[in-house]
Design goal:
Elements lengths: L1 H18 L10 E5 L6 H17 L3 E5 L6 H8 L7 E6 L1 H4 L15 E17 L7 H9 L6 E4 L5 H13 L4 E4 L3 H10 L4 E5 H9 L3 E6 L25 E9 L4 H15 L2 H9 L3 E2 L5 H22 L5
Helix pairs in contact: 2-9, 2-10
Length: 322
């Protein structure tokens, strides 16, 4: 029996090293935790990437939604599981670099968890209702200055880059705008369209359908380079606001206790799955920019820099969660 067991193990190892078709972390299904409700962007990405991973490794990949507490419930569920590679998280960088600034986490987002692999990028875009009188960014600032102290900006949640960006623009342009925080993009966009608030820095994923439908007007994109989906919209850097740089990654997170070889296998498996044409097409459909060339050390360094940058903004503007 022992010889048979060793033979099977050897075969599995060879197959996994050659084609990543065998999972080397046990026989259980892979548990993919999403710290968000079903049906959202992270859930969609998790399911399309997870489905491809299952095909590649020959084992089920089960998506488990654990929303709440700014993503900490989902990450805590992962951290409570054995660090063997069978339980990982699909999330965006904001759960590590933004939320912990205003929500107390039961773990250290820079020490207890580690980014495994990014599969895409996403930024925020400055929008108003399509009927707003300003036709471009300069006109928007001029219009808001005529209503100094009386205009407002929405955010999809306090303590996020949606709020950070609005505060920076208001401060730099001397607009004295009032912040109105919402529980997510949908209610914020509804009030934006209804004229209850003037502007919003929103995620591309939720704004793009409304921009395409002609209901929102886009003025600026928060990146060093223009978005492939909005090639005619200037970046905040082009417009003279290089500090309005908010472009995060979307990908997989694991425990910092993962052994180096397990981490490397996870990274390779995720990267392989994300390269599949069907996955690339789906990422593009939901408004993400596919990106596969970032390794774990680079992601960790980037996330740490994002965390420190956001912490400085929170201190400057004395931001607190509602």
């Amino acid at each position: 029996m022992k010889k048979l067991h060793f033979a099977r193990a050897a075969i599995a190892l060879v197959a996994g090293s050659l084609a990543l078709s065998a999972w080397a972390f046990g026989e259980k299904p892979v548990r993919l935790v999403v710290p968000a409700p079903p049906g959202g962007t992270m859930d969609i990405v998790a399911r399309v990437v997870g489905q491809q991973m299952a095909l590649d490794i020959g084992r089920p990949v089960i998506v488990e939604n654990r929303p709440g507490a700014g993503g900490s419930i989902g990450l805590q569920a992962m951290l409570q599981a054995p660090p063997d590679g069978n339980t990982i998280v699909m999330a965006a960088s904001n759960v590590l670099a933004e939320t912990p600034q205003v929500v107390k986490m039961p773990f250290d987002p820079l020490k207890d968890v580690v980014p495994i692999a990014a599969v895409a990028r996403s930024g925020v875009v400055l929008v108003t209702a399509a009927g707003y009188p300003a036709k471009d960014f300069q006109g928007l600032v001029a219009e808001l200055k005529t209503r100094k102290g009386k205009s407002s900006f929405a955010s999809y949640s306090p303590g996020t880059v949606s709020q950070y960006a609005g505060l920076i623009l208001s401060d730099r342009a001397g607009l004295d705008m009032q912040h109105v925080g919402y529980a997510g993009s949908p209610p914020a966009l509804q009030d934006l369209l209804g004229g209850q608030v003037d502007i919003m820095f929103d995620g591309m994923l939720t704004s793009m359908p409304l921009i395409k439908a002609g209901k929102l007007r886009a003025y600026a994109f928060s990146g060093k380079t223009r978005s492939r989906y909005l090639p005619d919209v200037p970046t905040t850097t082009e417009l003279g606001y290089p500090d309005l740089q908010f472009r995060g990654w979307v990908g997989f997170i694991g425990s910092s206790k993962l052994p180096a070889d397990v981490l490397a296998k996870l990274h390779a498996t995720i990267e392989k799955a994300a390269q599949a044409p069907a996955v690339q097409q789906k990422l593009t459909e939901v408004g993400l920019e596919p990106e596969l060339s970032i390794d774990t050390p680079a992601l960790l360094s980037e996330t740490r820099a994002m965390f420190e940058h956001n912490a400085a903004i929170v201190r400057k503007f004395r931001i607190q969660a509602n």
